[in-house]
Design brief:
Radius of gyration: 16 Å
Number of strands: 2
Largest sheet: 2 strands, antiparallel
Oligomer: single chain
Number of domains: 1
Distance between the termini: 19 Å
């Protein structure tokens, strides 16, 4: 049975955590690897370099949408292709465990499931609605 008193706060916790994780990963690409370095990596695995810039922007916008609660269900679903792409190009061939060389796909799969859970669960409290008004769920 779902506890309707606390379930919205679980959605909030999930929304904020996922948003912060995407913000951290975008920050890694910007401040550590640099956008040009990320584009170079994308090129080295056969992807167009410009896709790195799109990915960074997608992660930043998605993170902001999750953290602020602006269309978080849509944002959660929209972020899944980034993770599927990472599995298909880099992490899938490395095997399941993320501790494998080049990192396996287990962490990314968990991240996808968490995004799907958020999309199914809802916004949670303190989500900004598209109208700009604060909402409770």
């Amino acid at each position: 049975m779902i506890d309707t008193r606390t379930a919205p706060y679980a959605a909030l916790l999930l929304r904020l955590t996922l948003g912060i994780l995407f913000l951290a990963h975008a920050g890694l690409k910007i401040f550590v690897f640099t956008p040009a370095g990320t584009a170079g990596f994308f090129g080295s695995i056969g992807l167009p370099g410009w896709l790195a810039y799109v990915t960074i922007l997608w992660e930043l916008v998605g993170a902001a949408a999750l953290i602020l609660g602006l269309w978080p269900r849509i944002a959660a679903l929209a972020l899944i292709p980034i993770l599927v792409g990472a599995i298909a190009t880099v992490h899938g061939p490395a095997g399941f465990f993320f501790s494998n060389p080049n990192g396996g796909w287990e962490y990314l799969a968990l991240w996808i499931v968490a995004l799907l859970a958020l999309a199914l669960t809802g916004d949670g409290p303190f989500a900004l609605k598209p109208s700009g008004k604060a909402g409770s769920r």
